[in-house]
Amino acid sequence: MKLFRHAADLIEWRRENRLLSVGFVPTMGALHNGHISLIEKAKSENPLVVCSIFVNPTQFNNADDLKRYPRTPEQDLAMLAAAGCDVVFMPDEAEIYPAAPQMQLNFGNLEEVMEGSHRPGHFNGVGLVVSKLFHMVQPDRAYFGQKDLQQFLIIKRLVADLSFPVQLVCCPVVREADGLAMSSRNVRLSAEARLQAPALYRALTEAQQRITQGENPQMVCSEITRRLNETGIFSVEYLTLADTETLASVQSPQAGMEYALCIAAFLDGVRLIDNVVFRM
Ligand code: AMP
To answer: Are residues 269 and 191 in the same domain?
Structure first.
């Protein structure tokens, strides 16, 4: 496995391998089996796999969250080598941002809901870094997790609007045995909070079941939100039934159509997100 810290070396490697298709998995490190599932999917579809590890400062709207974001580079490299990754790109901040970016991306309605409305500037930062990485890696396919459903839709928009010649692949959410969606932030939970955390996925599955049985989505979501908040452990930012393409909130779901139930909540000072996609 090759490790590059400079874009010029990565670009040179890509030139030497220009006839082979590359699958690309962008990450912020502190890798877990959710990330590894993306590497495995990329490996099954491409002769070469590139993974980037870069904690992107422009997508953090909270300085403390950036400072406390877990960083485990040695362990990450060992996991990637074991998974058969071919190239790891691990740049420092100056490599990606030699100058402070001035460009502002606007994703329209898609960034006005959920993560976009609670994390101002977040998707501008995501769009910038993914664009830069796509230019450097020049992947044929890029792999993202459904765990960050809104991020996937934002990147789909980015690729369509800027004509990046890359095929996007959305991979299913990998969960712990108790249902908690794997996340780099989970290691920041106290032992007590970690025991409570699966309640988020249980909330999603309960809401899914009640909505498919015909209950009103808004009533179900506000009742479950109130219950989670009343524990005193969770502080729910949103729990919504959304259209899977636009993420617009849905009041009257139609039989046979696909929807996403999405949740974001603070637990023990850690912000967690999760979602389930299902057909009515
Ligand atoms: P991150 O390092 O959090 O930026 O995530 C890098 C990529 O891994 C993103 O495409 C995420 O959606 C994906 N990812 C994170 N957690 C999971 C998970 N539990 N299951 C599947 N993919 C995930």
So the answer is: yes
Longest dimension (CA), the chain: 58
As a whole number of angstroms, the distance between CA 34 and CA 40 comes to 10
For residue 72, give every residue at least 6 positions away whose Cβ sits within 8 Å of its Cβ, in sequence order, or none.
29, 30, 31
Task: Please identify, by atom number, the ligand 1 atom nearest to the C-alpha of residue 183.
Answer: 16
What's the predicted TM-score (pTM) here? 0.97
Task: Enter the tokens of residue 272.
Answer: 């967690």
Q: Is residue 144 located within the same domain as residue 206?
A: no
CA 148 – ligand 1 centroid, Å = 7
Whether residue 10 is contained in a domain is answered as yes
State the residue range of the domain holding 64. 2-171
- CA of 224 from ligand 1 middle (Å) equals 26
Q: What's the pLDDT tens digit per position in 70-108? A: 999 999 999 999 999 999 999 999 999 999 999 999 999
Give the pair of three-digit tokens for residue 220: 């179900």
Alpha-carbon distances, residue 234 vs 32, 98, 193, 197, 262 (angstroms): 24, 39, 9, 9, 15
pLDDT tens readout for residues 100-133 = 999 999 999 999 999 999 999 999 999 999 999 9
Q: Is 35 among the catalytic positions?
A: yes
Read off φ and ψ for residue 156, nearest 5 degrees.
Answer: -60, -45
